[in-house]
Amino acid sequence: AWTETGEAVVGEVGEMVIAAPMPSMPIYFWNDPDGNRYRDAYFEVYPGVWRHGDWITMEADGGCVVHGRSDSTINRGGVRMGSADIYQAVEALPEITEALVIGAELPHGGYHMPLFVVLRDGYDLDDALVEKIRTTIRREASPRHVPDEIIDVPAIPITRTGKRLEIPVKKLIQGVSPETAINRATVADTAALDWYIDYAQRFQHHRADTSTLT
After folding, report:
1. In Å, how far are 75, 186, 191, 194 from 176, measured between CA atoms?
2. What pLDDT digit, counting tens, does each position of 114-162 carry?
3. Where are the domains positioned within the chain?
4. What DSSP designation does 120 have?
5. What CATH superfamily is the domain 74-213?
6. How many of the other CB atoms lie within 10 Å of CB of 203?
């Protein structure tokens, strides 16, 4: 586990790096003849050292805790948090089947951390369930993990390999165009993604209206 300045730390969250050759290390990307995408993906942060893209904590006894992807880690008020901690808490609730959380630094300041949830049949996202979700996250994770907003959604967008589209949704909420934020060919269900595109546009319009009023 390395800090942003490349110092190894124990008992603290840091970037997972691999400082020695490993047998399964890929040597290039498909359709990347000059190797730029490959180098940007793994060697841009620490020149010559593989950055895997995960937050980890190396314990003094040699154990390792993986907190989640570093590029999708929530950074609220300077405190880094793994989205996996929220998923573990929320998806254990009987009312919820899936969830997606993002933390978005907004243009011109501000931070927005919504939690999107898919409910099981027969449940509604009423005030009682919202409070139950917040209380569960506060107890199982921490008060800082409690989202700004909890939203009932029809589906969670995932890639064809089953990964949540945290980064594309974050970019959409930050105002990035859909064409730039995501390659639709990699999405398992584009209809699910379209809901988030509409949400992001509504969110941006609301921010613009609020800014005009103030």
Report:
1. 19, 18, 19, 14
2. 999 999 999 999 999 999 999 999 999 989 899 999 999 999 999 988 9
3. 13-69, 74-213
4. P
5. ANL, C-terminal domain (3.30.300.30)
6. 20
CB 76 within 8 A of CB 83: no
- In a 10 Å sphere around its CB, with 0-12 CB exposed, 13-18 middle and 19+ buried, how is residue 200 labelled? buried
Residue 55 near residue 82 (C-beta atoms within 8 A): yes
Tokens of 90: 């929320």
Judged by DSSP in three states, 96 sits in strand
Q: In whole angstroms, give the CA distance from residue 26 to residue 210.
A: 48
The residue assigned the tokens 């209206």 is 209
Those residues whose C-beta lies under 8 Å from the C-beta of residue 128, and which sit 6 or more positions away, are none
Read off the pTM: 0.73
